Model the fold of this input.
Amino acid sequence: MSDSHVPVRGEDEPEQLREQFRQLLRYRWLIGGGVGVGLLAGAWLGITGADSYAATTDIVLRAPSSDPFAPTLSSDKAINMGSERQTALSRKVAEGAAKRLGMSADEADRLQRGLQVTNPPQTLVLHFTYTASDPKEAARRANALTQAYIDLRKEQWESVRGAMLKSLQNQLDPVAKQNDELSERLKKLPDGSAADSAYAVQANLLNRITDLRSKITSLKALDMTPGNVIRNATVPTSSDGPGLPLSLGLGGLVGVGLGLLGAWVRLVFDPAPRSAGDVVRAVRGPVLGALPRGSTGALVVGRTDSRTAEEYRSIAFRLAYDERFADRRRLLVVAARGSMEPSVAVAVNLAASFAETGKNVLLVEADLRTPSLTERFEVSAASRPHWSRTGQYADGEWPGPGRLVVDAGESGAFGLVPGERVRNVPRALTSARTTRLIAEADDPDATVVVVAPPVLAYADALALVDRVDGVLIVCDPRTVHRADLVRIRELIVGAGGTVLGAVTHTESRRGERGGTAAPRRGNRRRGTGSAASRPAPAGTRSEPERDPDDDGSTTIALRTVRSGDR
Done:
């Protein structure tokens, strides 16, 4: 059993990477901005680099030595390449080069800014690079700076040697004078112990004189050349920049990286759900369906065989096989916040989907603040039963025109109890008539679907949770926050309800608003489905047809009316 989980994890990892990449593409404006910045930087680099030319020289450094071919010589220990590089970049070298070029001392700083000195690893080579807008000037200045460095180092070495020679000579002169004086005294001393002692002192003086003269001779024999130029600067034939095409390519790549980094940072701090998994974790229930873009404005079930209709059918079947819903068959459809368009569309299409399976479906509009279903279906007072027009219902009871019948085309028909504005919404929602309406789901063949205002806007939905305990949350992951979904779940669970799952949707960018009623396929009892299912021609509008049934209720469908008929 444990081994079976290993391939599942392996298969989930590529899927998670694909999901993360898809989430990054939500922030195309950040990626596009990064690419734009990278291209602009690349264009600037390509344009500015086209007018710059670099000339280079190379110098091999060496330490002063009397025998450069001696195998025991170790120049790499005698020369500190870091210090030599700093010396080459010093103002002293720049002043010497400016003097060679006939420039004033004040221009040494400008001359120094174009110089770059590097040391290849594990070598005694200094690489001089000078960049200027004129290729000939770049080569001339590079050679001048190189020679100025050599002259400065040679002057420094010779200054050190001169100081050492002077110090040795100062030591030698007193000893030689003392030896000369001792030699004069020895000529006057008779043979004996005194003469022997004087000869011993003279021998020591002669050894000291020999040693000092040997050191002076060695210093004078030193080759003080600080280094050899192994490559002189020549006039460059091409610009130093990478070129405009390459700069644009590099800028684009860097821009993509910056854009993806910005999108990742934005994704990390985005409070909206980044994926269906985030919605599942927030509501602690499954995502029963994901509606296509712009599909939350029309009754599509029973009208056409479209992807949206099949998505609604799959949601209905998943609910039907959920034991928590199948036992009571009561469903409360709510949105998180904002418009009721998505939740109304989901409720109407799910009612049609349940009716398609043979259930007696009753759709209840629990929006008693801004009811809109009667306006969507354009139900007039003349089409209502007589008892509903007289307003004969008790104070605090559910208002409205009573029960209507909605023709869902090939899916069949379902009942509709539209809402109507009342002064005391909480009393109406908790009235006995509301309880009786929801209790109709006690019939084994009946299903009640209730659509209520957004949970975070009003507490109307929470007033119904204790009777309609199965709640379906409709949300747009781009506009709702994870904290909002968590709070909705806590409110529903605290009111005694159960979150059956969520339905996600994506609003159309055009912002079109469709009606919840479907174009009529025709009353199946009249057999007019083929003619009425054709789309309306230009210059026409859809208007509901109202067909009174035998039981006094009203069947709502749509017919096509030309604009001139009104």
Summary: Confidence is low (pLDDT under 50) at residues 1-11, 378-396, 510-566. The first strand starts at residue 53 and ends at 61. The chain has three domains: 21-49+243-268, 66-231, 276-523. Residues 316 and 350 are 6 Å apart (CA to CA).
